[in-house]
Each structure stands twice: as structure tokens, then as C-alpha cells.
Design goal:
2 helices; SH3 type barrels; four-stranded antiparallel β-sheet
């Protein structure tokens, strides 16, 4: 097809409009392209295997056993006699309590070791879970200065 003669159309000396002159030469005039299709959703994860379920149950049970550790106890020291063995002296709140080495503190924890510096409890169900309470000094005046400075 032949191009029209611009001289005959009386448009030979006209310049195109400014926005047409400043346009990008590589863009074609037309509607924008459609947006790309969204990616397909990822496949659902496979159901857990029996081994994974057993490992999750074991981890939850270990966490529950660890959370039930003896709390609220302060270890004061130990008493030792040949007849009764070693007794750990503890404070539970304001009440003094003693436990013999090997006794159960609660159904999950057993007192397994008593020394001058610490008492160690071991979980009954999981033998590798242990909880240690260090001996505390009796609370009193530090002696660094007057206790009441009023």
C-alpha cells in the first residue's frame, strides 16, 4: 500500500505534536500487555511419616518432662550420717524440707547426687535429663556499710 501524499493533504510543513516527538520509539501504541499469570501454588507438604510423628511425640514428651523440673527449691547443704546416708537440705518457700539421696522429689524427678556445692536431680523417664540446684548463701547483711542509712 502506498503512503498518502502529504503535500496534497496540506500537512507537508507541520511538525508532529510534542508528546509524539518525545515518545519512546521502541514502544508501540496499543493497549498494555496482559499481566503474567500467577505462579501455580506449591504442592502441599507430604504427610508426616510414622518416624516423624514418633520423633515429634518424643520431643514433646521430653519438653514436658523438662518443664516439670523441681522449682521453688533452694539448696542449703547436706547432712550425712552412716545410718541414713546423705540428706539434702532444701527450702521450699519458707518451709525447710529434706530429701534422702535416691528419693523421688515428684513422680518425674529423683535426687541422685548431693554435694556441698550442689544437688542434682535426674528425670525418671529420661535418664539424660538432669537438673542441678547450686547451694545458696544465707541471705543476710553484706557488711559493706550500714544497713539502714536514714
Amino acid at each position: 500500500q502506498k503512503l498518502p501524499d502529504l503535500a496534497r493533504l496540506d500537512k507537508a510543513g507541520e511538525l508532529p505534536t510534542e508528546d509524539r516527538m518525545l515518545r519512546d520509539l521502541f514502544l508501540f501504541e496499543g493497549p498494555p500487555p496482559p499481566p503474567p499469570p500467577p505462579p501455580p501454588p506449591p504442592p502441599p507438604p507430604p504427610p508426616p511419616t510414622a518416624e516423624q510423628l514418633a520423633a515429634q511425640a518424643l520431643a514433646a514428651d521430653r519438653a514436658q518432662q523438662t518443664a516439670s523440673k523441681p522449682q521453688g527449691l533452694r539448696f542449703l547443704g547436706y547432712l550425712g550420717t552412716k545410718k541414713s546416708g546423705r540428706l539434702g537440705a532444701f527450702m521450699k518457700g519458707d518451709e525447710p524440707v529434706t530429701f534422702k539421696q535416691g528419693d523421688l522429689f515428684n513422680p518425674q524427678w529423683r535426687l541422685v547426687k548431693v554435694t556441698e556445692a550442689f544437688a542434682e536431680f535426674q528425670n525418671v523417664k529420661f535418664g539424660d535429663i538432669k537438673f542441678r540446684i547450686d547451694a545458696v548463701e544465707p541471705r543476710g547483711h553484706s557488711g559493706s556499710g550500714p544497713a539502714n542509712e536514714f
